[in-house]
Specification:
Largest sheet: 6 strands, antiparallel
Number of helices: 32
Shape: globular
Distance between the termini: 54 Å
Strand content: 5-15%
Number of strands: 18
Helix content: 40-55%
Structural class: alpha+beta
Length: 938
């Protein structure tokens, strides 16, 4: 039943017939269906409705009823926090925060008639505390040295450990939807995402003040321009999935490209508000939020905040501030030239289509119909250069070092203007290989044709024997380009790398180049290694028609492409080439994949240079129904927050992001403080105080302990250092955290879910904790190798369209993979099998709380996975090395202290000793890895 549009409303109104009106029936009777969940209409209101219908239900023409909800901030999460800390059980302000935590929890336990469990045993507590704070088990020495009397010293030691940041960064990265590939169809790697991961680890280890942590991840480059962390932190905005096809291959000139941009901004906006404020603003994309005080205007004002930024690699350290400013200015100029060129190209295409609109489809049809499938793609084509001796290159990545006998270069073929075979083949060139994609190390010359002009090979392949050398990166550099009428180019139809058995190992490999014309189906990097090169049309009549159509199309293009337009395109090409040379001369420094408005263009993916896109309010969220232009702003969800930022006419996109960052991180924002302390409680106690950590709205859950939640929020807000470690320390030193997890039938009958925390929560090891503990127990974990590029426990196979990440081809005994799981390269499209079975977070989503399942597949994986098998052998070797006389008693005791954090009891000792004697140390290790005592923290 829809009543906002007259045409739909007519179906239930029945104008002139109130007794027949379904609408009247819905609001009258003993139990009226409308209004839903609200008091019935009064008799006077019902009569007015009847009178209106009896009068014919007059409705002003074109009138659309629109909801105008009031800003109802009367909700627990939106109410301002208290100005001071709540009082403790004595009625006085609690000086001891842990006393406050326990006092508030114990008060609710007493009200429910529950008795809390006693403290857990010392060996249980040290294992629980060490896993919760570092993600690793305690060593036998740490277990032996621990006692309940030195509990707080152990807390301080673990909080100061570098392993603390590695564990707690994993929590944050789950929420921040961190991954190292783009996702979507072409799940390309992000080789420079890892600095953001290292930033988060350092932030937790250094106890960065929380408001600063938030500000840096939204606008660190603006608010803290002299701190590299301010740029690296913007990896948060870019951490989620990204549609390469929509941005690079389609572009903003087409409707699908504009949708891709819209969804990209929506992803950033959702992440900012879900993670930092536990608010679901994305619900207002198509209509005012149904339940929370967020309007469509608020949502699209947020689009205006992020209207200039995209996701790409950007420098964060190395160049001087002046050099960075020069780089930014050059990138802005290049982006402007790219926009001008695209505008001219679009105008030319439109003019040609208007005069010869049927030619290109018919040409494509002739080529498709007259050739056996697949039809030929032309090849790769460089950008046009005004200079003959400009250096341009194209290269392939074989994925790993492989033995190559021959390299074959096949010239491109273009029917345009009867150019034919040999199109764009360089006059002089060279062929090289290197150990890295940047060609900075171990560069070797394979073939040198740069000393004198070369004959154009036309249809004949150029074959270069390399004698079985092992190669990975192969680059062809044109040192003298092929001439056209007034400019110069470099083009190739196909590059093949032939193995000793005749296979083309270059087929489907990744192609990069100094620049490229991406104009499918004619030209594109992917065409260079698609295994297809030119073949002539077989049908003479079709060929004749094709030639005629191409000549006519060329004539129209020549007429449309006036001298003035052609001159401007040449000028743009010259200016772009000059800018590229200047950029290459500037030192770039290390880069991070982050939010940016300045980067080198890639296909249709063109930087804004800091110029915000125009943002319209979209009717029903439809990109094809733009409404009013929206200024930057945000939902005013707390007193003092403003819906529209007052930035002035000279404001930049950076000013808008800075305004948003400052607003969200303000002292007055109650959502900021409540959201993070709820997460800290969840990450400590394995359950949050608010069961929907990303949604504190009316459709989310309410807090189980609202007074405690606010007390913690006030404590963090009023702490001069805004220290997260201080809150974590407060929580783990409470009596509630130290309770035994033993079951009690009477208590469970009252509170089966342990919402009131009468006992400790028993939890499984997370996927990463399980893997790290396997490596640690086996003596293989390389704890000191921290930070830097991620290790890869897969082999990339590169088919024509997208990489395949093959985990089964990785060697589980490869020492390069023996680092902590936080440093693993995270793929979106093909998750790691072992960790996925063990409930690892989906990197394409903001995962506020992981599932914790118990399945048969987990048991099978924990027994049969290749990593478990390999680590069992290594742990078995450690077990056998314990005693010279191979005492089973000593070996079993040692194995249990390493794997379980305690010695075995008598029953365990007997069973495990018998198993060791019968099946060996590696099998014993495998059994231990599958015990509940290993898999569960308690």
């Amino acid at each position: 039943m829809r009543l906002d549009l007259y045409e739909q409303a007519l179906q239930v109104i029945a104008p002139g017939q109130p007794e027949e009106s379904l609408l009247v029936q819905q609001v009258t009777g003993d139990a009226p269906a409308m209004p839903q969940d609200a008091p019935p209409l009064s008799a006077d209101e019902v009569q007015r409705l009847r009178d209106w219908i009896a009068a014919g239900a007059p409705w002003p023409e074109q009138r659309v009823l629109q909801a105008d909800p009031q800003r109802n901030l009367d909700w627990w999460s939106l109410r301002p926090l208290p100005e001071t800390m709540p009082a403790g059980s004595s009625g006085e302000p609690a000086a001891d925060p842990a006393h406050l935590v326990d006092a508030l929890l114990d008060k609710q336990l007493a009200a429910a008639g529950l008795t809390a469990q006693p403290l857990a045993a010392a060996d249980v507590l040290i294992r629980r505390l060490t896993y919760d704070l570092t993600g690793l088990p305690p060593t036998p020495e740490e277990v032996a040295a621990f006692s309940l009397d030195n509990y707080e010293q152990a807390v301080d030691r673990l909080l100061a450990s570098p392993a603390f940041g590695e564990k707690w960064a994993r929590h944050w990265l789950d929420a921040a939807r961190y991954g190292e590939t783009h996702g979507y169809d072409k799940d390309q790697p992000r080789n420079h995402a890892w600095p953001y991961r290292d930033y988060v680890i350092a932030a937790f280890n250094n106890d960065k003040p929380y408001p600063r942590f938030v500000q840096e991840q939204i606008a660190g480059d603006v608010l803290f321009p002299d701190d590299p962390a301010g740029v690296i932190a913007l990896g948060f905005l870019a951490a989620g999935p990204w549609d390469l096809i929509g941005h690079v291959e389609v572009g903003e000139q087409k409707i699908d490209g504009r949708i891709a941009k819209h969804l990209d901004r929506d992803e950033m906006i959702s992440a900012v508000f879900n993670v930092f404020t536990s608010t679901t603003v994305q619900c207002a994309q198509c209509h005012h939020h149904k339940f929370d005080p967020v309007k469509m205007e608020d949502y699209y004002r947020l689009h205006a905040v992020f209207a200039a930024v995209d996701r790409a690699d950007r420098s964060y350290a190395g160049p001087t501030p002046q050099q960075q400013r020069e780089r930014d200015a050059l990138l802005a100029q290049a982006a402007e030239l790219d926009r001008q060129r695209e505008q001219i190209d679009a105008a030319v295409r439109a003019a040609v289509a208007a005069r010869a609109g049927g030619h290109e489809p018919r040409i494509a049809e002739l080529k498709q119909d007259s050739l056996p499938p697949p039809h030929p793609a032309y090849g790769w084509h460089s950008q046009i250069s005004p200079q003959r001796d400009a250096s341009k290159w194209v290269q392939i990545d074989l994925g790993q070092r492989q033995a190559i006998q021959q390299i074959r270069l096949l010239a491109a073929f273009d029917h345009f203007a009867n150019i034919g075979a040999g199109f764009g083949f360089p006059v002089r060139y060279k062929l090289e290989t290197a150990e890295d994609a940047e060609f900075t190390s171990a560069v070797r010359l394979l073939h040198d044709a740069s000393g004198e002009d070369q004959l154009n090979p036309k249809d004949e392949p150029v074959t270069i024997d390399v004698g079985g050398k092992t190669l990975r990166y192969i680059r062809v550099t044109a040192t003298q380009l092929a001439p056209r009428s007034d400019d110069y180019i470099f083009a190739l139809g196909e590059l093949e790398a032939i193995s000793s058995d005749g296979r083309n190992l270059a087929r489907g490999t990744q192609v990069t180049s100094s620049d490229s014309i991406e104009a499918a189906p004619r030209w594109g990097r992917a065409n260079l290694t698609d295994g297809i090169h030119h073949r002539e049309l077989a049908d003479p009549q079709a060929l004749a028609e094709l030639r005629r159509l191409e000549r006519e199309l060329a004539a129209v293009e020549a007429e449309v492409l006036t001298l003035q337009v052609a001159q401007r395109l040449r000028e743009i090409g010259e200016q772009r080439a000059a800018i590229q040379q200047q950029l290459q001369a500037l030192p770039r420094g290390p880069v991070v994949y982050a939010a940016t408005s300045r980067f080198s263009s890639q296909g249709q993916f063109i930087a804004t240079g800091g110029q915000p896109r125009t943002i319209h309010l979209l009717q029903r969220g439809d990109i094809g129904r733009p409404g009013e232009v929206m200024p930057s702003g945000m939902p005013p969800l707390w007193p003092g927050a403003t819906a529209e930022f007052s930035l002035g006419t000279a404001a930049t996109e950076a000013d808008a992001r800075a305004a948003l960052a400052n607003a969200i991180a303000s002292r007055e924002n109650p959502l900021l403080w409540r959201s993070i302390v709820n997460r800290l409680w969840q990450w400590t106690f394995s359950q949050p105080l608010v069961g929907t950590p990303n949604d504190f709205g009316r459709m989310g859950m309410q807090p189980t302990h609202p007074e405690l939640l606010d007390a913690l929020a006030v404590r963090l807000r009023d702490d001069p250092q805004h220290s997260l470690k201080s809150i974590i320390r407060l929580l783990v030193t409470s009596q509630a955290y130290r309770r035994s997890s033993d079951h009690d039938e009477a208590a469970a009958a009252i509170d089966a879910d342990n919402r009131l925390l009468w006992r400790g929560n028993r939890r499984r090891l997370t996927a990463e904790e399980f893997r790290d503990t396997l490596l640690l127990a086996s003596g293989k974990l390389r704890l000191e190798e921290r930070g830097g590029p991620s290790f890869r426990d897969f082999v990339i196979e590169k088919p024509e369209h997208s990489p395949h990440y093959q985990y089964h081809l990785s060697d589980p005994n490869d020492p390069l993979t023996y680092r902590r799981s936080i440093y693993r390269f995270i793929v979106r499209s093909q998750p790691q099998p072992l960790l996925t079975v063990l409930d690892c977070a989906d990197p394409s989503l903001s995962v506020a709380a992981r599932d914790e399942s118990t399945t048969a597949l987990q048991a099978l994986t924990q027994w049969n996975n290749r990593l478990v098998e390999a680590m069992s052998r290594h742990f078995g070797e450690r077990i056998r090395a314990v005693s010279n006389d191979s005492s089973a008693a000593d070996e079993v005791d040692f194995a249990c202290r390493i794997a379980l954090g305690r010695p075995p009891d008598a029953t365990e000792h007997a069973a495990l000793s018998a198993h060791l004697q019968a099946h060996g140390a590696a099998s014993l290790a495998r059994v231990l890895f599958n015990l509940n005592a290993f898999v569960y923290v308690d």
